[in-house]
Amino acid sequence: MYESTTGPARPARKQMGMITGAEILIKALEYQEVETAFGIPGGAILPAYDPLIDAGFRHVLARHEQGAGHMAEGYAWATGKVGVAIATSGPGATNLVTPLADALMDSVPIVAITGQVPTHAVGNDAFQEAHTTGITMPATKHNYFVTHAEEIAQTVAEAFHLASTGRPGPVLVDIPKDVLNARVPWRDPEPVAMPGYRPTTSPHPRRIREAIRLIESAERPVLYVGGGIIKAGGSEALAAFARMTNMPVITTLMGRGAISDHNPNTLGMPGMHGLYAATTAMQKADLLVAIGVRFDDRVTGDPDAFAPFAKVIHADIDPAEIGKVRAPEVPIVGDARLILEAMCERWGDTPTPELEKWWTTIRTWQERYPLRFDQQVDGPLKPQHVISRLRDRADDDAIVVSGVGQHQMWASQYWRFDQPRHWINSGGLGTMGFAVPAAIGAKAGMPDQQVIAVDGDGCFQMTVQELITAAYERIPIKVALFNNAAHGMVRQWQRLFYNERFSASDLGQQLPDYPKLAESMGCAGLRATRVDEVDHVIETMLEIDDRPVVAEFVVDRDEMVFPMVPAGGSNDIVLNGPEDL
Ligand SMILES: Cc1ncc(C[n+]2csc(CCOP(=O)(O)OP(=O)(O)O)c2C)c(N)n1
To answer: 487 C-alpha to center of ligand 1: Å?
Structure first.
């Protein structure tokens, strides 16, 4: 290891009660009750890796800092706690930028600790120097540059507080090496008091009254709910409110599992690849009760043509989200659970509204335009068939983690979620390479639950090396790998919008032998190419629990995801299949 500019670490003489900044950092993480951290050492963070050996929490050595960051995200998604990622300065820190941006978009609480070159070298183009706080500023909820070892414990406490409260998100703490080496006494952090940061959690009663009044008089209302419900722990209150008001509930990609898919009021996912009935119900609604959602363009399509008849109640913990895309009649700032509980209370004994006509219309759409695929006995394997079989055989409380692309949409469409925190994916940034490391993080946090990564071959090739981490650390995730020898989603768009000119979306020229690749990394490797092999491979995959397993399904590369609303188009025009093109 080169340490030319940083010089050897010179431990100061031991003094009574004095410990290093690095020891304080580890103690500060223990103080926050960290159970698992994911990271990779290196020159600038090295002082912290020494006391880490004796830490009261587990450290998982990732193979790439992007992997460590997604592991922290997966851990946070699955457990509801703060995920922790540790990296060294320069390239270690820049490799964390993607998971930080991902966590920011999807409101995932993580704390990243990065080493920095010594204070005297900062700004001198020192070896492995990068302006970490500058680079990550737009990719974090907040970041800190720590200048004195005395500040470490308090800064870590603030970072955890910021990451996990209000709208959750990523927070980064950058610490120069000399600060990690300095010796100071430990002092318990003070209760966090940040005068400028006081998220509003309790909704204003007047707004709740106004919202209820609108709901009472609506004829075609829809509850439009997202990831905010899950983060706020608002699922029970949501189910109760849906029962009281008999409103149809649509769950965004991020909100899958916020309400059970077996609840008769649930219509599923709306938007670009949403279910016809869900997308159209929003389009025809006279009231959208939007809670913990951000009117993402994948949901709204062309915002000017979106839900043209609907009044909007928009409730969110982040006031900046309200009115960003669509001006609401009733804005409500607050915690999604508290808002729903307040609405339930206010609703009280009010009789359930008569929504029969609305429900009849919705049921007609559901019957007329169900999800469908055509699996021939001798034909190529359809990904939807594989996902359906896997869904039927997996544990009821299995956690499903997906990559980004066609397989992600099929997984969301065909899986059935009964509880929150069982569906983990990169919804906002759409990060390929998310699934394998995020699944490792989820399984590290919830070791007793089945964790299944549904991944595409393009995504898989981006972070496949983390399977070495999974095997070595005995984190037995299951990967259902959909090999269509293509960047399938890109290929679909090229087919539909670029005259079938498949520029740079073909992975088939040089495919690895996936089961062998898996085996070479200490995992089990399986493969199904025909329909009659699918069930056996799925059963074997679900039985193997002593190591990670990769089951490759060689699927039809021409299969497309439907329904589809072409990007930027109006949600009035939903393509239900190739015949609608
Ligand atoms: C890091 C990153 N690079 C590029 C993209 C653009 N992109 C979106 S989906 C996709 C193809 C995904 O292919 P694959 O993982 O094989 O999944 P499939 O669509 O075939 O199911 C690409 C390249 C992205 N989302 N993320």
So the answer is: 6
